[in-house]
Structures are given as C-alpha cells and as structure tokens.
Amino acid sequence: MTRSPGSAEAATALRIRGLVQGVGFRPTVWHVAWQLGLTGDVRNDGEGVLVRFSNADETQVDDFIRALRERLPPLAVIDSIERYPIAPFGAGDFDIVASAATTPLTGIVPDAATCPACREEIFDANDRRYRYPFTNCAHCGPRLSIIRAIPYDRANTSMAVFPLCERCAAEYTDPTDRRYHAQPNACPACGPRIWIDNRPDVEPLQAAQACLRDGGILALKGIGGFHLACDAGNSKAVRRLRQRKRRYAKPFALMARDLDVIRDYCTVDALSGQALRSPAAPIVLLPADGKYRLPDAIAPDSGELGFMLPYSPLHHLLLAPWDSPLVMTSGNLSDEPQCIDNADAGERLAGLADQVLLHDREIVNRVDDSVLRVMAGQPRPLRRARGYAPAPRLPQQPGRHPPCGRTAGAAAKDPAPPCPYRRGNGRERSAGRSPPRLSAWHWTVLG
Ligand SMILES: [Zn+2]
Ligand SMILES: [Zn+2]
After folding, report:
1. I need a labelling partner for 117 at 20 to 30 A (CA). Which of 195, 238, 311, 425 fits?
2. 3-state secondary structure of 270
C-alpha cells in the first residue's frame, strides 16, 4: 500500500501471524498504539494477533508497524502482517481484548531461559520471589513443556491448577507489567513448590546441595524432564553415575553457573558465548582446552565438553554456590526416554539417584536439551529441542534478553565472581594434550 499524506482516517485491521502469542506481544502493541495516540484494540485468536484501529490514516499505520518491529519482544517472530479496511467501530481508547475461541492455527513458542530481570529477583532478599524456583515473566519461562492446547492461555497449561494470588493476578492483568499475561506467572504464595522425595522434613535446596557436595547423585525435575546431577569434578561420583545409568562411553552434559566457570575449562568463542546466553540456552560443544581439566569419565576420548548455562530459576539457585561445573545428564537409563512424571521418576530414578528433587508443575510435553556447535562461523544445531522446538526457526534476535525493569545494569553481570579455589578429585592443570574429537553424531546422543 502506498503512503498518501493527508489520507482520511479510517478503521483498519492488521492481521499479524507468526510466534506472537505468549511472548508479551499484545502489551507491546498496546504500548506502541498508546504512544502514537491510536485508538482500537488488540486480541489473540486462532490465527495469531488481530489489531484494529478505529481512526488511523495510512501514515499512522506505517509508523505503528515500524515501531512495532523495532520494539518486538525478544521471543516473538512475525511471519506476516496483512492490512485491510474494516467497518467503522467506536473506541475511546486502545484496549487489550480477551482471547477469542476460534480455530487455532498459531505457532507454539519454545521454552525460554530465565531472563536477567527474573534472575535478579530470585537473588534479591527483599523481593517477594527471593529463592522462588518458578519465577518467570512474559519474556521467559516454560511454554511448550506446559501447554496442552492453543491458544496459549493459562487454562490450557499445567499452571491451570494454581489459581493466581491477588498480587500475581494484579501483575497478570496490568498491561504495563512485564508479567502481563505471563501464563506461567507464579509466586511462593500461589505457585508450584519443590520438595525432596520421601523427606518432607528437609529444606529441599539445602538437602540437594548437601547431596551434591557429598558426592551423591541428585535427580531433579526441570522444565522438560528430569536430570541427573553430580559434582563434575568428583571422579568417583561421575564413575558411579555412569555405572548406575549404564552409560559407559557417551559424553555427559555439563552445567556451569556462568561463562567464567566455563572459560576455566574451555575456549568460548563469541558465537558460542552468545548461544550459551541466549533464551534457548542449548548445550554448546566447546574445545576442552582451558586451564583446568575435568575427569576423563565426563567425555571419554573427546577433546570437547558440552556445556550449558542454568536456564531455570531452580538451576540458578542450585548452581549459585558452585565455582565448578555439575554433570547435568538426562534422567533416564541409557536408551530409555527421559522421565517427566513424579510417579515415573519415583520408580525409574530411585535406583539411579541418592536424592530426588521434585515439583508439582506437571510437564505436559517432554523436551530434551538442545545441542549446538559452532562450525565454520555458524551455530549449527545438532539436536533441536528445548528453546528451538517447535519454532520453525530462531527468534529474530536470539541472543537478546529484554532490557526490562530494574535489571538492565545487572543483566550483563554474572551472579558472583569466580572463586580461585578449586577442589581436587581429578581436576588438574591441563597438560596441553589434544585428545581426539568425537564426531557430531556422538554428541547428539549425549546424556
Ligand atoms: Zn523473566
Ligand atoms: Zn502469587
């Protein structure tokens, strides 16, 4: 459509398709429309998002589309915007309308790693979500793993059984809040909780930490399945995990608190660093040529290690005191599918783990960790799962988390400086040798 200055104001609709639901899209539309002084409304429906302006001329609609694209929420992807005239309607303001129940055709958004704003809250002793493992907002948190049906509304997710408390409901209904329509929104007063299986008397995070520190194997329920974790520097613990899991050669994935810890063991190039810190938070394969080494049992006969960063509040809380990595391998026996359900975990993981950390947010869809390697200057997914599935492609700005709220400054910082002290148990100075590299397919089946 050509721009014609002075064209008459008319009622206009925009049909927007893509990954536009459950990503903070309607509040962005609302903000942009409000700033441009436009009246009308925005709603989710089965085809995506429908925006209606009651009195916009072509120039104003052009300005709106340009501003919307510039301020797109980090997890949103626009496939198309279709513009067409509609019958006049009255609107004194710009409103967000409840979802219409029509045939759903819109895409489901992948699960996204905890954003910097939420991470800051869980480490802020004055915040009501201090140490709360299910903190999330419209820019982060579970999506695919909790959804039963679309449109993506809370009633269609496994969060439906947790009624919002007054404060969470106020956030959920305030278009200026970053938790506006954040479907998994929760807090300690109303949301899911964690516990250690068969040990109702203990503080779960402390008990989990004690288990790991003592060289034990911890099973923990995560976003899309269970993990088995142990101290990656404790070669006895790693060997015991291999024996129990009956996984004798495949590499174990690792999780580290921050990039500085990973850099102690691996070279992290710019693209790999960007992928590690992206909302998808995949496992990234890196050359194991840092100043410290891990026991050979982590990735036998490999010159690489597969690292990921914490991607849920529970991971951040668990990893916070660790200045060295944890093994974080999928919670299953070799060649069995990953566990997702509490009863199943009780049966199948009882013999594998010394402690089982459970929660009561149901995992609806099993989602494995994604695996990626940078090859020839390009990030190449070797396993496209959490963070990428079911999106047909990456969000437009995969490395960006929103500079929202009070966290813009803290966003770039890792939570704590690296500790120079490293415990023993197989962690040694690198001898500088370069073991043979595993083939890509080998890593796609890593635990
Ligand atoms: Zn967030
Ligand atoms: Zn609440």
Report:
1. 195
2. helix
Domain limit, last residue, from 76, 97, 118: 97
What CATH number is associated with residue 229?
Answer: 3.90.870.40
Burial of 244 (0-12, 13-18, 19+ CB in 10 A): middle
Domain housing 61 = 10-97
- Tokens 């083939």 correspond to 439
Q: Which ligand minimizes its atom distance to the CA of 23?
A: 1
Whether 317 is in a domain gets the answer yes
**pLDDT tens across the length of the chain (447 residues):** 444 444 567 899 999 998 888 788 988 999 899 999 999 999 988 788 999 999 899 999 999 999 999 999 888 889 999 999 999 888 789 988 876 555 444 567 789 999 999 999 999 999 999 999 999 998 999 988 998 887 778 898 999 999 999 999 999 988 788 998 899 999 999 999 999 998 989 999 999 999 999 999 999 999 999 999 999 999 999 999 999 988 767 899 999 999 999 999 999 999 999 999 999 999 999 999 999 999 999 998 889 999 999 999 999 999 999 999 999 998 876 667 777 788 888 778 878 899 999 999 999 888 899 999 999 999 999 988 898 877 654 443 334 443 333 222 222 233 322 222 222 233 333 333 333 333 333 333 333
- Tell me, in angstroms, the distance from the centre of ligand 1 to residue 412's CA: 14
Q: How far is the CA of 446 from the centre of ligand 1 (A)?
A: 29
- Please give the DSSP secondary-structure letter assigned to residue 112: B
User: Based on the domain organization, do 204 and 319 belong to the same domain?
Assistant: yes
pTM exceeding 0.70:
yes
Q: What percent of the residues of the chain are helix, what percent strand, and what percent coil, each to the nearest 5? A: 25, 20, 55
Q: Which of 97, 117, 152 is the last residue of a domain?
A: 97
Q: How far is the CA of 395 from the centre of ligand 2 (A)?
A: 29
Q: Indicate which CATH number applies to the domain containing 53.
A: 3.30.70.100
Q: Which ligand is nearest to the CA of 168?
A: 2
